[in-house]
Amino acid sequence: MFYLLDYERVSSDIIEACGSVGIAGLLNIVKTVLSMIQIIGPILCMVALAINFIKLMTNPEEKKYKPIIKNCIMALVILFMVPFIVNLVMSLADKSFNLAKCWNNAEAVVELGKESEYVNTSGKTPQSIISGSTTNGSTGQTTGAINSVIFVGDSRTVGMKNIVGTDDVWSCKGSMGLNWMKSTGIPNIESEIKEGAALVILMGVNDLYQVDNYISYLNDNITSWTNSGAKVYFVSVNPTEGSYAHMNDDIDSFNQTIKSNLNSAIKYIDCNSHLKSVGYQTTDGLHYTADTYREIYNYIYQNL
C-alpha cells in the first residue's frame, strides 16, 4: 500500500478508546495546558522566590517574607510535579484504561482527524461484493463486477476507515464539505475512478445548506465518472443525537432533496433510515461508535 500520510501507530483500538477526534482534541488541550503550567509555573515561582528572597535579605526582620518564600517553594514543586505525575500515571495505565490510552495518543488522533488520507490499495475488496453484471431498474445503473471501492468523505468517514481498516481507497478529511470535495477530495482519487470502481460519497453533514450545490456538482460530473467505467453512489447523511440532535430535521430535508434530484445514474444509499431502524450509537452525538461504523460500512457494501 501507499499512504500519503503515515499514521500506522494510530491503531483501531486507540481510535475506539478515544471514541472520537473531538474527545482526543479535548484531552490534547488539557495536555498542552499542563505542559505550559509545568514550564511557565515554575518560572513564575522562581521569579517570585527571588524577589521575596532579596526583600528578606534587605529586611531580615520582616517576618512576612518567610511564609511567602515557603509557599513559593511548595508551589514550585507542585507545579512541576503534578503534570509529571499525571503523565506517568497515564503511561502506566495505558493498557488498563481507555482514557489513559487516548491520553497518550491524543495528538496523533487529532492530527489523523485533521489531515486528508488517500490510500492507494491493491484493490482487494470483501467477498460480499457480487461479481457479474445486472441492471438496477430503479436507478438505471449497470452493476458489474466491482474490484475497488473508493470512499470520499469527512471526519465520519475518517472514523469509519480507522475502524474497518480495509484495503479500500479512501479520501477523507475532518470538518470538510463540498468545497473540499471539489478541490481536493475527488482530485485525490481521480485516477482511481475507472472500470470496476465504485465511487462512494459520504458528504454533507458539515454543510447541509449546500444541498443544491451538491446536486449540481454530482449531476454535472456523473457522465464523466460513468464514462470512465465507475459506478457512483451517494450515501445519505446519517443521524445525530445528544447535543447535535437539533440537526436531524435539516439532515432529513437534505437527504430527501438529494434523493429526489440526483441523476438516475447515481444510486442513493439510504443508510439514515437503516440506522434509525436498527439503532445506532455515537461517542459525542456526531461521530459513531466502532459497532455503528461497522454497521454503516457493511450496509454500504450490501447496497453496491
Please compute the radius of gyration using only Cα atoms.
26 Å
Largest beta sheet: what is the strand line-up? 1-2-6-5-7-8-9
Count of distinct strands? 9
Shape: elongated
Assign the CATH superfamily of the largest domain: SGNH hydrolase
Distance between the termini: 24 Å
Quaternary form: single chain
Helical coverage, percent range: 40-55%
Question: Given the helix and strand composition, which structural class is it?
Answer: alpha/beta
- Summed up, the domain count is 2
One letter per element, helices H and strands E, the order comes to EHHHHEEEEHEHEHEHEHH
Kindly report the average pLDDT value: 81
Q: So what's the CATH class of the largest domain?
A: Alpha Beta
Number of helices: 10
Give a quick account of the main beta sheet: strands, pairing sense, barrel closure.
7 strands, mixed
Q: Extract low-pLDDT stretches.
A: 1-10, 115-143
CATH T-level fold name of the largest domain: Rossmann fold
CATH-scheme architecture of the largest domain: 3-Layer(aba) Sandwich
Portion in beta strands: 5-15%
Task: Give the structure's gist in a few sentences.
This protein has 2 domains: 12-109; 116-302, SGNH hydrolase (Rossmann fold), CATH 3.40.50.1110.
Please describe what this structure looks like:
With 304 residues, the chain is α/β, with parallel strands linked by helices. The protein has two domains: 98 residues; 187 residues, SGNH hydrolase (Rossmann fold), CATH 3.40.50.1110. It is 54% helix and 12% strand. It is elongated and about 90 Å long. The chain starts with a strand and ends with a helix.
